[in-house]
Amino acid sequence: MLNIAVLVSGGGTNLQAIIDSIENHKITNTAIKVVISNNKGAYALERAKNHGIPAECISPRDYEDREVFNQALLARLEELGIDLIVLAGYLVVIPECIIKRFRNRIINIHPSLIPSFCGTGYYGLKVHEAALRRGVKVSGATVHFVDEGTDTGPIIMQKAVPVYADDTPEVLQRRIMEQAEWQILPAAINAIANGRIKVCDGIAAVLPEDK
């Protein structure tokens, strides 16, 4: 059984996709051990509680400095026996101490086809605004492992989504969530839980399902 912690900062739509996929058995061999937010008011915490999942707020604001917060978060993840950390709209930089402890065991969902529109400053609607300014015809989402860079870890899965001439950032954001994010994030978790992800020389490979 893969014990996961889902880290969120806002509404938790990707969290809901994970919960639904576990409940309908699209994700197997997996349990959400905890949902952690840096934001006491995050609706994601209510989503978790509605499904009987432990939900906690661990916020940098509650600690004397960032290093103390980092160690507190790491200690909680270790205490719970977490196997995989899932970043689902988490707007706090993951510290090096956690990246080292959970090497290739932290995944993130990013709302573009990396390496396009990613890196420092690209989050939320900013990603889609940049894509529309550039006039791209295809965008999408990427699930990747987290390393010390920003959106630079090994790519696990990607899914393309069309961009239309009359799209607004909000419309494009919704389409990418529905057609890409809510599909490939659960799929990546399921593949990890069932031993189908291998990382070699910085490249992640998804092995086929057993027939």
**Gap from first CA to last CA:** 21 Å
Whole-number mean pLDDT:
96
Percent range of helical residues: 25-40%
- Give the low-confidence spans: none
> How many runs of DSSP E, i.e. beta strands?
9
Order of helices and strands: EHEHEHEHEHEEHEE
Largest sheet: 7 strands, mixed
Q: Work out the strand percent.
A: 15-25%
Secondary-structure-based class equals alpha/beta
Shape: globular
Catalytic activity: N(1)-(5-phospho-beta-D-ribosyl)glycinamide + (6R)-10-formyltetrahydrofolate = N(2)-formyl-N(1)-(5-phospho-beta-D-ribosyl)glycinamide + (6S)-5,6,7,8-tetrahydrofolate + H(+)
Pathway: Purine metabolism; IMP biosynthesis via de novo pathway; N(2)-formyl-N(1)-(5-phospho-D-ribosyl)glycinamide from N(1)-(5-phospho-D-ribosyl)glycinamide (10-formyl THF route): step 1/1
InterPro entries: Formyl_transf_N, Formyl_transf_N_sf, GART
EC number: 2.1.2.2
